[in-house]
Amino acid sequence: MKKPSFQWDFLLTQDFNDTNVLRVDVSQEQKDRAINILHRLLAVMNKNNWPVLVEKSRYERRLINVVIIDDEKISFRLREKLKQVKRELTEKDLEEKKKWGRVWYEKIKIPSGELHLTLDGPLPSGFSQVILDKKNFSLEDQLGHFIHNLIVSAEYSKVLRKEREKEQEIYRRKQVVWDQYESLVTAQTQNIQTFFSLFEKSQRAEQCRALIDAITASETFKQKSESEQKRWLMWANSIVDTIDPVTTFEMPELMDEQNCLTKAVFARSINEAGLAVKLSVPTLSLENVSRGLETLTMQGKTKNSMQ
After folding, report:
1. Which residues contact 243 (CB under 8 A, 6 or more apart)?
2. N or C of the chain: less Cβ packing under 10 Å?
3. With contact defined as beta carbons under 8 Å apart, do 24 and 36 qualify?
4. Mean pLDDT confidence for 88-102
5. Residue 23 contacts residue 34 (beta carbons within 8 Å)
6. Closest by Cα among 82, 81, 83, 78 to 34
7. DSSP 48
8. Any residues with CB less than 8 A from the CB of 193 and at least 6 apart, and which?
9. How confident is the model at residue 293 (pLDDT cuts 50, 70, 90)?
């Protein structure tokens, strides 16, 4: 333990890079008492074969005491309570306050002589994470209560972890079904768009063929030689054939069962989600798909607003 570097900080500190010592935040006057309390706690932890280690905080420059009970990590801390008081101002402070209307650290926090133990872990209702030092009931007399709270916290942590894992598994299964459904609805929407695109191509091809018929029936076309007529018809029909979905055989793409929201495909998507019960899903019509898209959109908006 070393003295604090800040003028108005009265608690002893430990080297942040030394994880071989437990963290304790007390004044010089309470140092021996705090070490005695920690020794008594460590004796109980050692007797119960509970590993004790010191970790570095990820977000702050401080050490964290950790005890492992039944594979559950619980951090704990021993510190001295501080009380706020007004300090006696020097002549320089008084001049500065008179000039600026305030002075830095006019109120400071000094050690109160009262220790308390804190555990950082979940506890059921009725249990406290903090054990306070009282006038008629010292912290040393409450160490058994603190040890009991550590055990309860470890058991409760295990219960909460199992519940959290169960909720995550339920969410994962629902998410798989949601993703499968969203994928199938997206595929069917693309199929509908493709069909409309083929319809537009077919209309354009029909209009082009009508134009070809009109040209071949004209007097100007009939005045051309037979070879010129055949050459032009071959050229014009080749252009129409490239955009006609019937002649290019694009229609069968929409007949592929893998691209449709059929009963078999939709049922497989749900069964692959890992659900215990195999679900029977009816065949979805275009009306079903339309309603599904509306539902999917509303659920997506609700999901985004909740996030």
Report:
1. 201, 204, 205, 208
2. C
3. no
4. 86
5. no
6. 78
7. T
8. none
9. very low
Q: How many residues does the chain have?
A: 307
Pairing of β 63-69 and β 72-86? antiparallel
User: Where does the pLDDT of residue 130 fall: very low under 50, low under 70, confident under 90, or very high at 90 and above?
Assistant: very high
The 10s digit of each residue's pLDDT in 234-264 is: 999 888 988 888 777 665 555 554 444 444 5
pLDDT tens, residue by residue, 264-275? 555 555 566 555
**Token pair for 28:** 């010089």
Closest alpha carbon to 197 in 250, 265, 161: 250
Give the residue carrying structure tokens 């209307």: 101
Report pLDDT for 257.
44
| Phi, psi angles (nearest 5°) of residue 124 | -65, 165
Encoding tokens for residue 305? 């607003």
> Does residue 164 contact residue 156 with C-beta atoms inside 8 Å?
no
Residues 6+ apart with CB under 8 A from 150: 67, 69, 74, 76, 119, 121
User: Burial letters for 236-274: b for 16+ Cβ neighbours within 10 Å, e otherwise?
Assistant: beeebeeebbeeeeeeeeeeeeebbbbeebbbebbeebe
- CA 25 to CA 55: how far, in whole Å? 16
Distance from C-alpha of 166 to C-alpha of 88, rounded to nearest angstrom? 59
Give all strands (DSSP E) within the chain, no chain letters: 24-25, 52-56, 63-69, 72-86, 107-120, 130-132
- The pLDDT, as a whole number, for residue 183 is 79
> Please, is 160 exposed, middle or buried when counting C-beta atoms within 10 Å of its C-beta (0-12, 13-18, 19+)?
middle
Distance, CA of 23 to CA of 12 (rounded, Å): 10
Question: Strand 72-86 vs strand 24-25: parallel, antiparallel, or unpaired?
Answer: parallel
- pLDDT > 70 fraction of the chain, expressed in percent and rounded: 81
